Automatic annotation (TrEMBL):
<dbReference type="InterPro" id="IPR017871">
    <property type="entry name" value="ABC_transporter-like_CS"/>
</dbReference>
<keyword id="KW-0547">Nucleotide-binding</keyword>
<dbReference type="InterPro" id="IPR027417">
    <property type="entry name" value="P-loop_NTPase"/>
</dbReference>
<feature type="domain" description="ABC transporter">
    <location>
        <begin position="13"/>
        <end position="247"/>
    </location>
</feature>
<dbReference type="GO" id="GO:0005524">
    <property type="term" value="F:ATP binding"/>
</dbReference>
<keyword id="KW-1003">Cell membrane</keyword>
<dbReference type="InterPro" id="IPR050086">
    <property type="entry name" value="MetN_ABC_transporter-like"/>
</dbReference>
<dbReference type="InterPro" id="IPR003439">
    <property type="entry name" value="ABC_transporter-like_ATP-bd"/>
</dbReference>
<dbReference type="InterPro" id="IPR030679">
    <property type="entry name" value="ABC_ATPase_HisP-typ"/>
</dbReference>
<keyword id="KW-0813">Transport</keyword>
<comment type="similarity">
    <text>Belongs to the ABC transporter superfamily.</text>
</comment>
<dbReference type="Pfam" id="PF00005">
    <property type="entry name" value="ABC_tran"/>
</dbReference>
<keyword id="KW-0472">Membrane</keyword>
<keyword id="KW-0067">ATP-binding</keyword>
<dbReference type="InterPro" id="IPR003593">
    <property type="entry name" value="AAA+_ATPase"/>
</dbReference>
<protein>
    <submittedName>
        <fullName>Polar amino acid transport system ATP-binding protein</fullName>
    </submittedName>
</protein>
<keyword id="KW-0029">Amino-acid transport</keyword>
Length: 250
């Protein structure tokens, strides 16, 4: 008999009816979405709709008021969540490149693997080289952040996150602060990561890019998931709000 092994894989990220307020301002109003292993979820929506807050809740930079968040095996909303373990599994890159200016690129990348994971320095240097090769910056190992262009700094920030071997990467408008000619090189790195099977949640205003890379698009509006589906919702929005956002009118 042909015995098939049924492997039920759990999603990497689950948000279930997440609520979050800052004082009297309701920012997340029952947000739910799920990201399967290897998938790319693109979060879109106008400024103030709650995208960054949703991302920050996944990494527990913000604590939610109610609902549930699970990331790999972590119950993120639990009071006793192991933040160190959670943040090893979740890499996050923001709009402003947050490299340490007084450290070389190598030191930026090896800091966490050495201090958090206890990696030996020579092994960490090799790791830094490998991660920089992934983002096309092999020659910048000994440079300081200020010697790099904005696009290169963002790529180095991505390499630094990857050095912790995260299971999911969160990107929050990582190209928004860049000149248009530098945006492409950063998006290319993200595209390659996706092709390599990295699970990601990404906030971006680059709609063409989103169309190409997203397995799932989630449109947030006023703290809610207003519309969600495959990238095709960008071409055929069902709600006037998404239509207006993508500029097609409805
Ligand atoms: P987006 O990323 O979609 O632009 P945000 O999640 O950054 O939206 O913000 C959603 C709303 O929450 C905004 O009105 C913003 O001003 C507010 N907000 C975000 N962070 C805080 C905070 N730490 N304290 C108070 N208000 C906040
Ligand atoms: Mg934001």
């Amino acid at each position: 008999m042909n015995q098939e092994r049924i492997v039920i894989e759990r999603p990497i990220v689950v948000l279930d009816k997440v609520h979050k307020s800052f004082g009297s301002l309701k920012v997340l109003d029952g947000v739910s979405f799920t990201v399967e292993r290897g998938d790319v979820l693109v979060l879109i929506g106008r400024s103030g709709s709650g995208k960054s807050t949703a991302l920050r809740c996944i990494d527990r930079f913000e604590k939610i008021d109610s609902g549930e968040i699970r990331v790999c095996d972590h119950r993120v909303d639990a009071a006793d969540v192991d933040l160190r373990a959670l943040r090893q599994d979740v890499g996050i890159v923001f709009q402003s490149y947050n490299l340490f200016p007084h450290l070389t690129i190598e030191q930026n990348i090896t800091l966490a693997p050495v201090s958090v994971k206890g990696m030996k320095k020579p092994a960490a240097r090799e790791l830094a080289k490998a991660m920089l090769a992934k983002v096309g910056l092999s020659e910048k190992l000994d440079a300081y952040p200020e010697q790099l262009s904005g696009g290169q700094q963002q790529r180095a920030a991505i390499a630094r996150s990857l050095a912790m071997q995260p299971k999911v990467m969160l990107f929050d408008e990582v190209t928004s602060a860049l000149d248009p000619e530098l945006t492409g090189e950063v998006l290319k790195v993200i595209e390659r990561l996706a092709a390599d099977g990295m699970t990601m949640v990404m906030v971006t205003h680059e709609m063409g890019f989103a169309r190409g890379i997203a397995d799932q698009v989630v449109f947030m509006h006023a703290g809610r998931v207003h519309e969600a589906g495959s990238a095709s919702i960008l071409s055929g929005p069902a709600t006037p709000e998404l239509a207006q956002f993508v500029g097609t009118g409805l």
